[in-house]
């Protein structure tokens, strides 16, 4: 059940435990919103006054349906919430919440096969088959799959996956990659700040080497970074892949 500043509250019914995660991978160093019925109550309606039918139905549901101890997840957007929660100054402090700080986990992916993509060839990847192959590759990185390792020697009868060369359009290089992952409620502001930070610190290139065509010559700069985020239940996710020259590929998938 979620209480909004507008005076509305809603319940979202679901059958499984869900989580949200976000991660990014970079050659220099994520699923999906769960769909379930929503029952919304406007606590400012006249019928929600104590003794009215609307309030009585909500009271009955709380006594007969929500009659077991439940764990609720809340994200506090207050920048000073960490201190104010411990001091007992937040409204939720009355319920003695458990505080969990979202910390990133970094995983090194050494000797990883990476397609040597260049900016001029990006339009050739707009075909659905190639676009899905590239997204699948990013997903394999996010999973830390051994299938993308340069030293993978799995029996082809067990796994037929190979890092795509896009019909021989690109070659494969061996790079040391890093995956950084967060799990928890992730606000848009956090995503924006992370995006700008990674661009500033990891996509720096020399002037004239930003992946664009200059003086009739194609830049061979290959530096890129990818973000992948997933919602509750694993039915929707998005992936963003951006090069140093701001060329960007985006996938928005629903299951």
TrEMBL record:
- UniProt region (Disordered), positions on chain: 1-20
List the GO biological process terms: endonucleolytic cleavage in ITS1 to separate SSU-rRNA from 5.8S rRNA and LSU-rRNA from tricistronic rRNA transcript (SSU-rRNA, 5.8S rRNA, LSU-rRNA); tRNA 5'-leader removal
Residue ranges annotated as transmembrane are none
* Domain of life, per lineage: Eukaryota
What Gene Ontology molecular function terms does this protein carry? ribonuclease MRP activity; ribonuclease P activity
Q: Which InterPro entries match?
A: RNase_P_Rpp40
Query: Which residues lie in Basic and acidic residues bias regions?
Result: 7-16
Pfam families hit by this protein: Ribonuc_P_40 (PF08584)
Q: What are the record's GO terms for cellular component?
A: multimeric ribonuclease P complex; ribonuclease MRP complex
The protein's matches in PANTHER family, at most eight in alphabetical order, are given as: RIBONUCLEASE P PROTEIN SUBUNIT P40
Name of protein? Uncharacterized protein
Organism of provenance: Didymosphaeria variabile
């Amino acid at each position: 059940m979620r209480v909004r500043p507008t005076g509305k509250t809603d319940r979202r019914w679901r059958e499984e435990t869900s989580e949200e995660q976000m991660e990014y991978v970079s050659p220099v160093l994520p699923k999906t919103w769960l769909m379930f019925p929503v029952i919304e109550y406007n606590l400012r309606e006249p019928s929600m006054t104590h003794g009215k039918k609307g309030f009585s139905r909500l009271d009955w549901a709380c006594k007969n349906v929500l009659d077991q101890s439940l764990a609720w997840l809340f994200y506090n957007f207050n920048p000073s919430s960490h201190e104010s929660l411990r001091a007992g100054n937040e409204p939720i402090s009355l319920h003695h919440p458990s505080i969990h700080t979202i910390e990133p986990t970094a995983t090194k992916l050494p000797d990883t096969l990476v397609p040597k993509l260049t900016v001029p060839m990006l339009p050739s990847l707009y075909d659905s088959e190639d676009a899905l192959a590239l997204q699948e590759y990013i997903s394999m990185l996010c999973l830390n799959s051994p299938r993308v390792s340069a030293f993978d020697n799995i029996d082809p009868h067990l796994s037929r996956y190979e890092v795509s060369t896009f019909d021989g359009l690109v070659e494969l290089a061996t790079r040391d990659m890093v995956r950084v992952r967060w799990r928890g409620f992730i606000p848009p502001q956090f995503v924006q700040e992370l995006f700008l930070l990674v661009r500033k610190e990891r996509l720096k290139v020399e002037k004239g080497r930003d992946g664009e065509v200059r003086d009739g010559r194609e830049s061979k700069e290959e530096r890129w970074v990818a973000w992948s985020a997933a919602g509750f239940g694993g039915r929707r996710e998005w992936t963003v892949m951006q090069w140093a020259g701001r060329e960007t590929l985006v996938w928005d998938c629903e299951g």
